[in-house]
Amino acid sequence: MSFLIDSGIMVTSQVLFFGFGWLFFMRKLFKDYEVRQYVVQVIFSVTFAFSCTMFELIIFEILGVLNSSSRYFHWKLNLCVILLILVFMVPFYIGYFVVSNIRLLHRQKLLFACVLWLTFMYFFWKLGDPFPILSPKHGILSIEQLISRVGVIGVTLMALLSGFGAVNCPYTYMSYFLRNVTDADILALERRLLQTMDMIVSKKKRIAVAHRTMFQRGEVHNKPTGFWGMIKSVTTSVAGSENLSLIQQEVDALEELSRQLFLETADLHATKERIEYSKTFQGKYFNFLGYFFSIYCVWKIFMATINIVFDRVGKTDPVTRGIEITVNYLGIQFDFFYAISSSKSSNVIVLLLAQIMGMYFVSSVLLIRMSMPLEYRTIITEVLGELQFNFYHRWFDVIFLVSALSSILFLYLAHKQAPEKHMAL
């Protein structure tokens, strides 16, 4: 009886997660875009529901909610379903929609979709060869075989996003990195943009007048053909001194300049708004958070380096430790929320987003397990099987360090290039 009650709780929560994922998809992510395939929306919502269920089960493990046998059953069921979606269903539909957009393959799209899925499976399976992620005694279709490979991809994505976010967050919110922009700078750039647009209009008007003159003279209908005719049309002057080819080249160059000036003007307006926002109370608050995350970023880079050099596995980071101290000694409770956002609308992009989301959540479980006390991770360890958990933590440190250092270099070059680009324009 208790198993039925526990299963009812889990099914109810999954239905709620599915509904929330559906509303989140329609009202937030893609409210301004159209995704006509309902199967895409269903796959996204199901992936979202089972991803959230994994973290619900982690909370249930800590709080002791549900019977232990029920938790084990739903852990097993949840992992089987999420792996079925990530390894079989989403890759197949991605291939199916890719083939559907190719006219030459449209008649045999199901066949070619299967070929693409088999190609994915081949590379997905070969992914496990260079990594020490699994004991060879597990079967080919065991949960350990699938989750070990999903974990490599997911941990890599997590580390890349974490490394970039750790660097980009303080860069975005700290007023120290804002370049000084005045109204005079914006006005001067807007004046140049208007002058460029006037020049484009003037030259296009000259081209239109020249074409009208050619039409009135009958040169359009009696236009010479062949190689010599092409040479003559390029070298012949129209209306005394007009060369249409040369003027058109000038128009193309001015239009490219106008696009650059427009983007730079929009960037200056955005920077000016950020400067004004930084002077508000909320802006000062985020500026303070920027300094905090800068220190945290340096600490994470330092600890990732230490872990790599000394081949150690980090247990707890400062944020986790701080929450642990706050909960244990101050009695303050924390709620955790994971948000996924995207502005893409095509079916393939939506499915890729679902794939990334599912792998991200599965990999989070692998990494969170190390931070959990031994008495709370027994069932998780049994369900996940004999995976090389230490490898995933070391791999995360390596990719995080590469991502963070690359992001620092990229943002430094972008920040340095911005004033030079403004001066050049």
Report what the structure shows:
The chain has 13 helices and no strands. It has about 425 residues and is an all-alpha fold. Helix 2 (about 40-65) packs antiparallel against helix 3 (about 70-100), helix 3 (about 70-100) crosses helix 4 (about 110-125) and helix 5 runs parallel beside helix 13 (about 390-425). The model is unreliable at about 235-240, about 315-335 and about 335-345 (pLDDT under 50). The chain is globular.
Provide the descriptors you would attach to this structure in a database record.
single chain, 425 residues, 77% helix
Per DSSP E runs of 2 or more residues, the count of β-strands stands at 0
Task: Flag low-confidence runs.
Answer: 234-241, 316-335, 337-345
Question: What is the terminal separation in angstroms?
Answer: 74 Å
Q: Could you estimate the helical fraction of the residues in percent?
A: over 70%
Provide a quick synopsis of the model.
The protein has 425 residues and is mainly α. The protein is 77% helix and 0% strand. The chain contains 13 helices and no strands.
List the helices and strands and how they pair.
Blueprint: H1 2-29, H2 38-63, H3 68-100, H4 109-126, H5 143-173, H6 183-217, H7 226-235, H8 244-278, H9 281-309, H10 318-330, H11 347-371, H12 378-384, H13 389-424
